[in-house]
Amino acid sequence: MHANYPDLKGRSVFITGGGSGIGAALSSGFLAQGARVAFVQRSDATEFCDEMERQHGNRPLYLQCDIANIAELKGAMDKAAESHGAITVLVNNAANDKRHKTEEVDEDFWDWAQAINLKAYFFACQHVIQGMRAAGGGSIVNFTSISYMMGNAGYAAYTTANSGINGMTRSLAREFGPDNIRVNAIAPGWVLTQRQKDLWVTPEALAAHLDRQCLKFELSPEDMVDPVLFLAAKTSRGMTGQSLVVDGGVVVTG
Questions:
Q1: Ketoreductase domain: from which residue to which, for each copy (predicted)?
Q2: Among 45, 87, 106, 158, whose Cα sits 20 to 30 Å from the Cα of 216?
Q3: CATH number, span 6-246
Q4: How far apart are CA 105 and CA 156, in angstroms?
C-alpha cells in the first residue's frame, strides 16, 4: 500500500528504464495513482505492460529506446507527450553500474558510462522544460546513488556521473524554479533488484552492507516508490534542488 496523491491522477509521467527493476516498481506506483505513464527501455516490455493493465486497469505506454541515443530519447518523449499530454513528471531512473577498474577504462567506456548515467539525464531534463513551462510547472526526479557519497571503489565512472547528477539537479532547480519546475534527486542505497542479485550480491557482501545500515532489512524496489511519488506530487511543492537519501541509514546528510 502506498500513500495516495490525488493530484497525480491523470498526470503525464515519463520514466526511463520503467519496465524492470526500480523503474518497474515506479511505473506500477504511478499507474496505481491513475497517472498516464510512458516509459522507455531497450528490452521488450510487452508482458510487463500486459501485467500492469491487469493489475491497474491502466496500461502504460512502452517505447523501445536506447537512452544513450539522444535523438531516440527525445523522439520517445515527444510520442509520450502526443499520447498523454505534456509531460509534467519526469523520472530519470535508467542507469548502468557496470563494475570496472580505473586503470582499464578507455575513452569509449568512459563516454558510454557518461552517456547512460549523466548525458541522457541532462537532455531528458532539457527536452521536458518547454512542455512543463507551458503546463504551469512540473516535477523532475533524478536518480543518483549513495555510491559517490561513500567513495565506493570499483566503478569510478559511475560514481562520477552520480555526483554530476547532483550538481545538475541543483543548477536546474535554480534556473527553472521561476517556471514552477521543481528538480530533485533521490539517492538509493543498495536496492536488491534482480539484476543486483544476479551480478553483485553475495552473502558476504550483503551482510557487510546491512551492517552499515541503521535499519536491518534489505531494500527492495518498492521502497523507492513512495519517496518518488512524494517528490512528484504537490505535497512536496516547497522542495527543489534537494537530494533525498533512501538507503536504510548508511550515509548521514546535513
A1: 11-190
A2: 158
A3: 3.40.50.720
A4: 9
Rounded CA separation 133/180 (Å): 8
Domain segments of the chain: what residues? 6-246
Nearest Cα to Cα of residue 121 among 141, 135, 103: 141
Cβ–Cβ < 8 Å for 18, 27: yes
Angle at 53 between CA 139 and CA 51, to 5 degrees: 105
Is residue 16 within 8 A of residue 120, CB to CB? The reply is yes
Q: Is pTM beyond 0.85 here?
A: yes
- Measure CA of the first residue to CA of the last residue in the chain; give whole Å: 30
Catalytic residues: 158
Specify burial of residue 135 (Cβ count, 10 A radius: 0-12, 13-18, 19+).
middle
Per the CB < 8 A criterion, the answer to whether 120 and 67 are in contact is: yes
pLDDT in tens, the chain (254 residues): 789 999 999 999 999 999 999 999 999 999 999 999 999 999 999 999 999 999 999 999 999 999 999 999 999 999 999 999 999 999 999 999 999 999 999 999 999 999 999 999 999 999 999 999 999 999 999 999 999 998 889 999 999 999 999 999 999 999 999 999 999 999 999 899 888 888 878 899 899 989 999 999 999 999 999 999 999 999 999 999 999 999 999 997 75
